Amino acid sequence: MNQNHNELIEQINSLKDQLKKKTFDLEERKKELNCLYTISKIAETENLDIDSLMQQVVDIIPLSLRYPDISVAKAVVLDKPYENRPHAPNQWKISAPIVSSGKKKGELILYLTQEPDQNLQKPFLKEEQDLINAVCERIGKIIERIQTNEQLKEVEARYYRDITQEKEKEYQVNQEKNRLQQENIRLRSTIKDRYRFQNIIGMSPAMQHVYDQILTAANSDANVSIYGESGTGKELVARAIHDMGPRNADAFITINCGAIPESLMESEFFGYKKGAFTGAAFDKHGYLDLADTGTLFLDEIGDLPISMQVKLLRAIDGGGYYPIGSQSKHTSNFRIVAATNKNLKQLVGEGFMREDFYYRIQVIPIFLPPLKERKEDIPLLVDHFTDIYAQSSPFKKIPNHIAAQIFNHDWPGNIRELQNVLLRFFSTGEFEISNMIVNPRKSADVNRSVPIGDNSNNLSHTIEMVEKEQIINALQSTNWHRSCAAEKLGISRSTLFRRMKKHGLRLKQNVRY
Amino acid sequence: MKILIVEDEPQVVAYIQKILEKWGYDHQAASNGKEALRHILETAFDVILLDIMLPDYLGYDLIPKFRQIDPDISIITMTGENSRELEQRVRKEGILYYMVKPIETQNLKLLLEHLCKNG
Questions:
Q1: Which of A14-18, A454-458, A485-489 has the lowest average pLDDT?
Q2: Which of A82, A108, A512, B34 gets the most CB atoms within 10 Å of its CB?
Q3: Are the beta carbons of B87 and A290 separated by less than 8 Å?
Q4: Domain match, A350 and A401 both
Q5: Å between B58 CA and nearest CA of chain A
Q6: pLDDT, tens digit (0-9, with 9 covering 90-100), for A215-235
Q7: pLDDT of residue A1
Q8: How many CB pairs lie under 8 A apart between chains A and B?
Q9: Domains in chain A: how many in total?
C-alpha cells in the first residue's frame, strides 16, 4: 500500500512539474507573440522611419526573453547602432541578420549581462533564437517598405518641382505676352492722348494727326514725302517712320539735297570705282548702296537737279544704277522718305521737278503744321528745351514776361527758330526774337521794343534800326554764317563784326560755364 | 565761314590748314573730342571737319554732343578706312559728307563753296 502512495505522489509531482513547465512555455510563447504583435503595430505607424523602428524593437525584445533583467538587445542597421541599454559585448549571445530587398542591411544581437543559471547549457533558448529570426524577418520587410516609400516620395517631389518650374515659366511667358499685347493696344489706341511720339513733341490735334500718319507710313514700304516749313521737324518725322517700321534695324541715310554741289551728285548717290577718274583712290559706296534694305532720307528734295531725278527714278523703278566707272549694274532695295518746305507741285509746274518723279516719291504725303498753327504745343517745347539747356546754364527757367512773348510770337522759323532763341537765352541771358531785343537782366519797362515805322522822327535812329534788322535777317538767312552774311550784305566781314557788336548782336562767343 | 578741324594726326591738320588758308576760310584746330567741345562752346563754327578715330571719342559719339550746343552746324567726317558699316553708323547721326582719307581736296573745296553760297 505504501508503495502505491509513494508512486502516486511521485506521479503527481511529475505532472505538477510538467504543468509548471508547460505554463512557463506558454508564458514565453505569449511574450513572443506579444513581441511580434507589437512590432507589427509599430510597422503600421504613419511616417515610420528606420531610427524609430529599430529603437522601439531593441527596447521591447528583452521583455519577451526568459531573463528580461539581464538581457540586452542590440542592433546595427545601415551602419547605425541601436541598443536598449549600454553593454559591452561578451560570449553569451545570439544573433540574427536583418535582410531587406535581398541585401543584408544589419544585425540583431542579444546578450546576457551575466552568466545565467549554471544548470543551463546555452544562454538562450532555441525558442528565443526562433523569435529573433522571426523578428528580423519582419524588420527586413518593414525596412524594405520604408525605403521604397522614401524613394517614391523623392521621385514625386522632383516631379512636382519640375512641373512647378515648367508651370511657372509658362505663367511668366503668358504674363509677358499679355503685358506686351496690352502695351501694343495702349500705344495704338491712346495715340490720341500722346504729348510725345518718339522724339517729336506735341499734344495738339494737328500733331495727333501727324502721329497717325507716321504709323501708317511705318506700316508701309511706300515712298513718303513730308511737307512742312523750315524748322518744323521733318527729319524727326522721317526718323520716326524708320524707327517704327520693319527697316528699323537697317541703315538710315540722311542726305541734304540742297547741300551737295551738283557736280558731286552722281558720285555721291551711285558711288564710284577706284581709278574711275583722277583722285578716285578707292571704291566709294554711294547713298543707294548704303541705304540697301534701309531708308534713304532726302531732305530738301526740291533742290535735287533734274538730271539726278531722272537717274534716281530709274533706280526706284528697279532699273538699277551704275557707279561711276563701273560696267556692272547695281540694284538696291531702299525706301525713300523725302522732305521739302517747297510746294512740289508748283516746282513741277515751273519745270524744276519732273512730274513722274514727283508722283513716285510721294505715295504717302505727310503734312507738318507750322508752329503758329499749334500754339498749344509751345509750352511743351519750351519745357523740353529748358530741360536740356538749363542744365549747363546760369539761368534755370524762362521768366514769365518772356514766356508770354514766346507764346505770342508766330515763329516763322518754327521749332528750329524757337530752339535757337532758347539756346541763345540760356547761353547768354539775351532773349532775341527777330527785331525785338530784350535783356532779362534789365527791368521790364526798359525792354520796350522799338519796331520800325515808329512815330520817331529821328532819322539816324530809324536808319540804325533798319541796319540792325537787315543784319539780323542776313544772319538768319545764312544760318548765322557770318562770312556768308557779310557777303550777302555786301560788306566786309570785319565791318559786319563791328556793326554786330554795335547793335549788341553777340552769338555764343566768350561764354564760359 | 569758320571751320573747326578735329584731328589728332598733326600732318593731316597741317595739310587741311594749308588748303583752308588758301581758300580764305577761318579755321581752328582741336586734337581730341574734349578740346573740340570746348572750342564749340566758345566760338560759333559753321563746319566741323571731324576725324572718326580720336584718342578720347569715336567721332559719331561726338556728333550729338556738337548738335546739342549748335543744332545747325554742318559736319564732314574723315576716316582712314573705307568701311560700309562704319559709314552707315556715322551717317545715322546725319552728316554733310563722308570723306575717306587721303583728303578729297577738290571735293572739299566744292562742298565748302556750295555751303557758303546757300547757307
A1: A454-458
A2: A108
A3: yes
A4: no
A5: 19
A6: 999 989 999 999 999 999 999
A7: 59
A8: 97
A9: 3
The three-state DSSP-derived secondary structure of A270-327 is: HEECCCCCCCCCCCEECHHHHCCCCEEEEECHHHCCHHHHHHHHHHHCCCCECCECCC
The set of residues, in sequence order, having a beta carbon less than 8 Å from that of A464 and lying 6+ positions away, is A503
Residue A453: give its domain's CATH number.
1.10.8.60
Strand partners, B51: B78
| Cβ–Cβ under 8 Å, residues A240 and A283 | no
Q: Which of B20, B73, B87, B118 to mutate to test the interface with A (most CBs of A within 10 A)?
A: B118
Single pTM value for the model: 0.61
Supply the ipTM of this predicted assembly. 0.95
Domain span at residue A351 reads 196-369
* Rounded-to-integer distance, Cα A271 and Cα A263, Å: 13
Chain B neighbors of A332, CB-CB under 8 A: none
H or E stretch including A281? none
* Residue A170: inside a domain: no
**A165 within domain boundaries:** no
Contact B68 A388 (CB under 8 A): yes
Q: Classify domain B2-118 at the CATH superfamily level.
A: Response regulator (3.40.50.2300)
How is residue B103 annotated by DSSP? P
Check if the beta carbon of residue A506 is closer than 8 Å to that of residue A500. yes
Q: Flag whether pLDDT at A443 surpasses 60.
A: no
Q: Which amino acid is at A457?
A: N
- Identify the pLDDT of residue A221: 92
pLDDT tens, residue by residue, A255-292: 999 999 999 999 999 999 998 888 788 899 999 999 99
Contacting A residues, span 242-281, partner chain B, CB-CB under 8 Å: 251-254, 256, 258-261, 263-264, 279, 281
- Which of A252, A259, A483 has its CB closest to that of B92? A252
Are B115 and A259 a contacting pair at CB < 8 A? yes
Question: Which residue of chain B has the CA closest to A279?
Answer: B104
- Dihedral angle of Cα A225, A226, A227, A231, to the nearest 10 degrees: -150
